[in-house]
Specification:
Number of strands: 0
Largest sheet: none
CATH class: Mainly Alpha
CATH superfamily: Leucine-rich Repeat Variant
Order of helices and strands: HHHHHHH
Number of helices: 7
Radius of gyration: 16 Å
CATH architecture: Alpha Horseshoe
CATH topology: Leucine-rich Repeat Variant
């Protein structure tokens, strides 16, 4: 039931709106991301993939900062992130942002990447406890 509104937001963010309008939309999504249910919904929707794509393509300093902030907040507040996010090259995009010439972009990129690494580590930890009977391909 949320697919259409989320799709409209994703379309709006990729459309011809000005940087200021896109930043205002992202700021609003930052507010929503503080709620775990909203964060889960946004992180597992097409919006997260759009945010990663926008971050990869954007050269605008302010927009990049807000994109990184939102991505970090969504990862932080989400209790469950779908595997589809890995196909978005999020780790590569965040790592590339660490080399940005702007200090604030680098700090926000490090924060978002840290949240993602922590999330991945805790998921692997949970799986190793729950999946102890499964064979590991690296142990051969």
């Amino acid at each position: 039931k949320l697919d259409e509104p989320l799709s409209r937001i994703a379309t709006y963010l990729t459309g011809s709106a000005s940087h200021a309008e896109k930043q205002n939309t992202i700021k609003y999504l930052e507010i929503l991301s503080a709620h775990p249910d909203a964060a889960n919904t946004l992180a597992n929707s097409s919006i997260m993939l759009v945010l990663v794509k926008m971050l990869r393509l954007s050269k605008a300093y302010g927009l990049r900062v807000h994109l990184l902030s939102l991505i970090g907040l969504l990862i932080w507040h989400s209790t469950s992130i779908e595997v589809d996010l890995a196909s978005s090259e999020i780790i590569k995009v965040l790592a590339d942002s660490l080399g940005d010439k702007q200090d604030k972009v680098r700090r926000y990129a490090m924060a978002a990447l840290g949240e993602l690494v922590f999330y991945i580590a805790t998921q692997n930890e949970n799986c190793s406890r729950d999946c102890a009977g499964l064979a590991s391909p690296t142990k051969d």
